[in-house]
Structures are given as C-alpha cells and as structure tokens.
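Task card 7
Instruction: Convert sequence to structure tokens.
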Amino acid sequence: MTGGIMLRRSCVFVFLSFLPLQPLTLHSQPPITRCLWKYFTGPAQVQSPAVGPDGTIYIGSGRYNETLPSDGLFAVKPGGTQQWTLTLGMTVHSSVALDQEGNLYFIAGDANKPDSMGAALYSLDASGNLRWKLDSIGWMAPIPNTGFTPAIATDGTIYVCGRFSLFAVRRDGTVRWKHDFPLFDNIFGSGERHTAGNHRSAPTIASDGTVYVNTMRGGHEGGEQVEGGVYAFDSLGNVKWRTYDMGGTAAPVIGGDGTIYSAIGGYGVVTDTSNAPRLLAIRPDGTRKWAVETQLWCEASPSIGADGTLYIGTTHHPLDVPGWFHAISPEGQIKWTYDTAPDVKNDSASQVNPPDIYDSPVIDANGLIYFGNEAGRFYAMNPDGTVAWLDLVTSQKYGSPAIANDGTIYIPSDTKVDFDHYALIALQGGGGGLADSPWPKFRQNNANTGQAPVSAPTAVVRRTAPLHGIELFPNYPDPFNPTTHIRFQISDFRYLKLGVYDLLGRAVAMLVNSVEGPGTYTVEFDGSHLASGMYLCRLSAGDFTQVRKLCLLR
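Output:
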C-alpha cells in the first residue's frame, strides 16, 4: 500500500481470431496491410510509447475525463506479448520516460479531479516495482495528455511540470527546487472563482542543461490575462529569459545548433489575429530568429530531419478544415505542405469534425516521416512531400509513434480498435531505426527523455604516422574520473563521427563531427556532468563503425 493506492500486477488478455466478427465498415483507404500485431490494453487510450534498450515497449493508459479500472502501465515484449502490467486504478496522464538504468517515470492521478493536487510523479524499476512516489504534483488536463511527460537530464535529474509548477526532482524522489508559474482566475458557470494553473508543455533540456517550457496564455470570462511564451531555466531553477506571446502546450524542440523551436497554439479556438498560428525559432539567448505562419494551429512538437528540415502537423482550429502537414527549412521557409482533406473526402464523420494532426511525427534512418491523424489515416511521407504509403490504422490524438531499432513502428490508439479495447499497434516500417538527427521524434529519443544530445567537443591532438586502416583504441585511463583520453587512427581523408552514448543509445557527447585526414588522433573526454556507470564510445566513418565501452567511476 503506497499513498493510499494499491499497486498490483494484473493480467491483460490478448484477443485472438476466434472473436465474433464485427459489422463491416467501409473506408476510402484499404484496410491495414502492414500490421504486425496489436496489444490490447482495455477500455483506456494509450499514450506515446517508450522503447527500452532491450526492445521492451512501455505504455501508460487512461482517459483524460474518467478513471477506469484498467488504467495503468504495460510492458510489452517486441513480439507483442505481455511482459508485465501494473494496475493503478487511476489515469496515467503522461507518457513514460526512461533513465539510463531503465527506470520508468510518469504522472498518474484521478482524471475526475483535474483541479486537485492529487496527481503524483511515479518511478518504477524495469520490472514494474514501485521505487518511489512524489505526491501533490497535480495536473491541468492539457491536450495532448502527453504534455506532462517528465524530462530526464544526463545527471539523472527529473524535470516535470505539474498543475502550478516546474519541479526538479533528484533520482531518489526528493525535490531539488520548483518554480511556480503565474496563475489566472478561472470562472466556472456557477460563478465560483477558482485559481488555476497556466497551461504548459513538458520540459525540454538543452545540451548545456538549460530547461525550456512552453506556456499558453490563460484567462477566462473577466479573469486577468496571463501572457504565454517560452521560459528558459538554468539548472538551479533561475529564469534566464522568457518570451511574451500566445505560447502553446507543445514542448519546444532543439536543433543541432541550439535553436529552440516552439509552436504557437493550444486546444480550443483562439481568435486573436495578433497571435496568428506559427512556428517560432528562438536563439539560445532568447531572441527571435524567425517565425513561420502555419495558418492552422500547431498543437504538437515538430520533429527534425537529418538535414535540419522541421516537420509539423496542424489542427483545424481556427479554420474548419482538416489538418495540414508542413515541411519547414532551417531558415524558416515552408518547403511544402500536404493537405489531408482529399484523403478523408469520403469519410462522413470527417466532414462534420475535420480530423486534426495532434501527434509529433517520427523520422526513420531512411528519411521517411511517419504521422497519423484523428481519422485513423497513418502516413509514411517521403522527404519531398509525396506519400510513400498510407494505411487506415487507428485514430491518433494523444500519443505519438515511435520506431524501434529494427524499423518496427509503434502506434498508440486513441479510439477502440476491437470492441471496447484500445491497443498498441506494431506496423512494418521502412527499415532502420531513428534518423541520425537532432530531434527525430516526440521527446527526442525512444526513452522519451526530452534531452537534446550533449555536445562537448574538446581539443583534438593530431600525431602523424603511416596508417593502414581505421581503428578505435581503448580509452585511458579506464575506469576514469572525470576525464579520459580516446585515441583513434585513419588512413585517408574521412568524414568522422566520434561520440559517447549511454546504454540507452542517447548521445551524451559528440567529440568529433568533421572531415579529418590521415593520422592518429587523441581526444580528451570530460565526464564530470555525467552519472557513474558504463558508457559507449562509437567511431563511425562511412560504412565503418567501431564501439568500445567506457567506465566512469565517482
């Protein structure tokens, strides 16, 4: 018994082909052709999946306006069978985030009491056992529900937004600091006044440790307006800068040069022409780089391709048309726009309620961009804006897709896909894992950490010598604290990448990313910002890759 909540293991039944047939529903697109398997979770929608280093998929479930007995956590094996489940009896309001030890972090609370402070931050181990629980985080029912997904820094600090505040939480579950956001008065139909928190995004962590949070303008029926915008915090909780604009509920993302990209928009119709829907590019010092008007609201974060192109979907507010999908250059020019309206022209429900694109796209190693919409269309787009393939799968609204290392695409369902059951759906993708880009998916990586790859280049000392190949030598000293030397050699001019990664495959330092000539090179790596543990050093040049283990001991 923890905090008055009984945590227990429960069984989830996977329904097989002997189920009775359902009435046939006709669609303008063909039925699923790429489906590998479905994992049913019961009558509660599925949040964005996290994928562990062993391929295990972790998903939370729940409804934002009701609490169901099946609400909880699910660990699913790569083949679609159950590993374990944990029934909480309350809604999971965020996606799961994983730290480098494989521990899980998420927010859960009573969905029927969103204005209370009852929601808590939970931490489980990889087997589903409760590690700790931080009470009184609270929540404000953002859409998408994944807005409160925690972010995890390389030093293990967990950053999470609750109802009123941004919390910095230590690995043992104690609070380092919190920042209280401005409040506004929410006036209910009864005339009762109630202080409510401003709507805000999940936190995003830059490579230098700066934490960014997007907030949306608040205020209702005579209540005082609270300005929205992006906040930048240092690791001690001090506000470095903030912008003042309409803001939004989508988490900022970070480009390879440190540019912060933040979407203007949020749920509901906003008719403020001075805050036209747009995507902002903000420099690390808080000054605006550019703004692109998207005409329709962007309520999910963009993803970034290997060439820096930003991909983002829109909702139909404030125009009563289906969502669009934009490709935007790093310089702030719209490269192309895909209109989803022709794909739902024969869908009567879509004519009444045009389908939105609420999810963040995911980009694979071959450059294909995947996203879904409310009408159940799931797209694989080529980088030139043409459709590679389109399947009728499931409505996506509150969860974004993920891609495993083998190219399997995992899609969370927002609608019932079999009687009263929601599901995690696995589709055959185009091959390869995530794109090698600054931000290829929701929350940057399959662990959903919201942490940009750490770049810590140091001086390269070159020693000329006759060479006959490429080799990455063992680092010295090893174990080390906090610095070690990494040596490699090449025999001709090559484009090299030398990076250090944690065991989840997340980059913690990019030491070399340039063309180098023949020679032997030594690079000093400083791990003072990292936790103790094993790390991987990877050297790649063309089709050559070599990996060695590093051991940091404090």
